[in-house]
Amino acid sequence: MVDQTEEVSGPTMKVDSNNIRTFHPAKIFNDSTMPIIGMDFHMNGKVLVVSSLDDSLNLYNCETGTKNRSINSKKYGVGKVRFDRDDNAVLHTSTKVDNTVRYLSLTENKYVRYFLGHTKTVISLQVSALCNVFASASKDKTARIWDLRLNNCQGLVHFSNESVVGFDPEGLIFAAACAAEESVKLFDLRNFDKGPFADLEIKNPVPGSTWHDIKFSNDGTNIMVNSNSTYALCFESLETGPVQRLNVENPTNAQIGGTFTPCGKYAFVGNDGKTLPVFEIDKAQLAMGEAGVASSFETPAYAQLPTPNHQNAIMNIVFNPKYMHVAVASQTLEFWIPDIPESATPR
């Protein structure tokens, strides 16, 4: 892999207008027998965990591009999955028996703790950069804040319908988005009990569609919301303003994924067609609008990257936090990298 950060050993590689068009599959894995519904890189960039509807967790070594091991959870099933700060433990939601979030030790292959409280399926799970904090959201119309050391939730938000949750890169801002309310609420974790410090009005461009993921750009200035329809949305994170609509093909109403590049200038967005679209984030236009006025604009895809190995919708896309490497998944998992110039530092 190629490092994104500066190293003594030589020049490094950055995403730019030229190499963004050259991303392609370098490794292909067909370890899952059903669609992949969750995946997460550890913050060190060395390990990827993948969850599938076949009740399996698969772990991959991102330095060697090989599969490490599989763990099955036939009793409880696995839904969304996230690494803890320790790369030897993960949190995952359950698809069977109950709606518990489970904390799994990968070294001991046993559950360390159970987080009970949700009364329906948990559909969103995110871990904060702050030690021991994570969030979940459920079809029970609640979002919850948890401490890894405690079984009971430490914060609760009610919505009129299901929501999704996320954290800014510093882990201090908690975001909860609800498509039915056309709202993105932002909370300061240090003053969570005071309620949201901002409530962004974000119009749902396709009435009845749902939002299933929310992500901040690495600099924290922009937010992306992904849907089960033909769009993803991008907007500034601190006030209602212009919204950039990123249009994709999605005839099956799959829960398409998306990810910002580390620089925040581009976004890969899932698709149920023959390509993976890449969009240029128009930061200038996002910042131009009048505060409090949620106008919208559309931009064509900057590039359409072929995806011949995917027979189903691409529902998960995650950019490695350390290396120039994107994980792209439907039922098939791929590691994508750009063409690498000779001057770049090999990893």
UniProtKB/TrEMBL annotation:
<dbReference type="GO" id="GO:0048188">
    <property type="term" value="C:Set1C/COMPASS complex"/>
</dbReference>
<dbReference type="InterPro" id="IPR015943">
    <property type="entry name" value="WD40/YVTN_repeat-like_dom_sf"/>
</dbReference>
<dbReference type="Pfam" id="PF00400">
    <property type="entry name" value="WD40"/>
</dbReference>
<dbReference type="InterPro" id="IPR001680">
    <property type="entry name" value="WD40_rpt"/>
</dbReference>
<keyword id="KW-0677">Repeat</keyword>
<keyword id="KW-0539">Nucleus</keyword>
<keyword id="KW-0853">WD repeat</keyword>
<dbReference type="GO" id="GO:0003682">
    <property type="term" value="F:chromatin binding"/>
</dbReference>
<comment type="similarity">
    <text>Belongs to the WD repeat SWD2 family.</text>
</comment>
<dbReference type="InterPro" id="IPR036322">
    <property type="entry name" value="WD40_repeat_dom_sf"/>
</dbReference>
<feature type="repeat" description="WD">
    <location>
        <begin position="115"/>
        <end position="149"/>
    </location>
</feature>
<dbReference type="GO" id="GO:0016070">
    <property type="term" value="P:RNA metabolic process"/>
</dbReference>
<protein>
    <submittedName>
        <fullName>WD_REPEATS_REGION domain-containing protein</fullName>
    </submittedName>
</protein>
<dbReference type="InterPro" id="IPR037867">
    <property type="entry name" value="Swd2/WDR82"/>
</dbReference>
